[in-house]
Design goal:
Keywords: Signal. The chain has a single domain, classed as Galactose-binding domain-like (Jelly Rolls, Sandwich), CATH 2.60.120.260. Helix content is 24%, strand content 38%. The chain has helices spanning 2-17, 111-114, 167-192; strands spanning 37-39, 41-47, 50-56, 65-73, 78-86, 96-101, 104-110, 123-128, 133-142, 152-161.
Length: 193
């Protein structure tokens, strides 16, 4: 009987732990661009703040270089990261960049906002999922009007945090409560015997 209970507990913990996939793959780019869909010129670099992906708007007038991934989030999950727009052009060539989830911009900038050859600060952002489901994370940068002097978008430190307990944690709490109940019952039996 003990072996069956132990086997059942291990199977329950494994099933609960694998019930929900990781919400983001390679959010800090430590494995290159693995897990990301790339369309255009995206390179990796590093500095004291860590690894970043750099998207170049060098594909021609109005054609976005993009980097994307589908995130599997639960209601209450908080997605965050950092982005920086670097203008390689001047007005009237209003190059632009964006970062969005399901079409909602979390970061956006252009040459008009930062000035000729200007840049934004490295900007942090967060967004909270209202419901459980799949969300498309998309970012891009485009050159406007001409194909010269492309601007770029740097992104880094993508992560998902949650106040929602992980399924594996719930399983461990449940098993702990079950074990405490069994131990209490056995102690009570031994006391009366």
């Amino acid at each position: 009987m003990k072996l069956n209970m132990k086997t059942l507990a291990v199977a329950f913990a494994f099933a609960a732990n694998s019930a929900f996939a990781a919400p983001i793959t390679n959010g800090k780019f430590t494995n290159g661009l693995e897990g990301w869909t790339v369309d255009g010129s995206v390179t990796l670099g590093s500095d004291t703040a860590g690894i970043h992906a750099s998207l170049s708007g060098n594909r021609g007038p109005g054609v976005y270089t993009t980097l994307s991934q589908v995130l599997r989030l639960r209601a209450g999950d908080v997605f965050g990261g950092q982005a920086q727009f670097i203008a390689g052009d001047y007005l009237p060539y209003n190059d632009d960049a964006f970062l969005s989830i399901d079409g909602l911009n979390l970061f956006a900038s252009n040459v008009a906002a930062v000035g000729n050859y200007g840049r934004t600060a490295l900007t942090g952002f967060t967004w909270t999922a209202a419901s459980t489901g799949d969300y498309v994370l998309m970012m891009g940068v485009a050159n406007r009007v001409d194909g010269a002097a492309p601007s770029s978008l740097l992104v880094r430190n993508f992560a998902v945090t949650s106040d929602v307990p992980e399924p594996g944690s719930c399983a461990l709490i449940g098993l702990g409560l079950l074990g405490a109940g069994v131990a209490r019952r056995m102690a009570a039996r031994n006391k009366t015997a």
